[in-house]
Write a structure and sequence with these properties.
225 residues; alpha+beta; 57% helix
């Protein structure tokens, strides 16, 4: 893959264009672009060397197209367009794809680490989708992994903040019943004390009545005392 635009990357099957290759927009996905150079009769006769070159170009064309289509299929909605191929004119007058790229959006989703994580995972799968990922493909996969790691850290911090808030609320809720029980205990103690005071007063009154009944007319001495 090669960087082709701001916040976008493109997959590239080859990093170095072959001599005589030209880059053009994507054409039909069938092997070899069906453009043939016209010439006098007999000019299409190829030497053995040229025939071998044509076979190599056909093989290259199939590999390039399969490679880029794998990127495109895995990228889904993050692909910024269809494959763009670099063509080379063969000895037979036909153009063959010898390189290509698929632009892919690699920007983070603003204020949404969860969506960014999912996007990064998709980008990584797209980068490694071909059977033989290039070094540039692997570089994009590494970039996607870094983006995913950053998103996970943001999600972890958000979860920690949420847990801290929940813990504080639960702690305050747990403290209130303790306060209520303390108030109830104080109220019970106060009631018990009032009951004890009442019983004490009743006992004193009973004693006074009993004493009065035993000595209804106290002596002068006792009065003086």
């Amino acid at each position: 893959m090669q960087i082709t635009a701001l916040n976008a990357v493109s997959s590239s099957y080859v990093s170095k264009a072959s001599p005589g290759a030209t880059q053009e927009p994507s054409e039909a996905s069938s092997p070899a672009a069906n453009v043939q150079k016209k010439g006098p009769a007999g000019q299409q006769q190829l030497s053995e060397k040229e025939k071998k070159e044509v076979e190599q170009l056909k093989k290259r064309d199939r590999e390039v197209r399969a490679h880029e289509l794998a990127h495109l299929a895995a990228a889904g909605g993050y692909a910024l367009g269809g494959p763009q191929f670099t063509f080379k004119l063969g000895p037979d007058g036909k153009r063959y794809a010898v390189g290509g790229e698929v632009p892919i959006d690699v920007s983070e989703v603003p204020d949404n680490p969860e969506a960014t994580l999912q996007k990064a995972q998709t980008i990584r799968r797209a980068a490694l989708a071909p059977a033989n990922p290039s070094s540039a493909d692997r570089a994009i996969a590494a970039k996607a992994m870094a983006m995913a790691a950053k998103a996970r850290q943001e999600l972890s911090r958000t979860q920690e903040d949420a847990d801290a808030g929940t813990s504080g609320t639960r702690s305050a809720t747990q403290q209130n019943p303790t306060i209520d029980r303390s108030s109830q205990n104080n109220s019970t103690t106060s009631t018990n004390m009032d009951s004890a005071s009442y019983l004490t007063r009743q006992a004193i009154q009973a004693y006074d009545i009993s004493s009065a009944e035993q000595n209804p007319h106290p002596s002068v001495f006792e009065s003086i005392v």
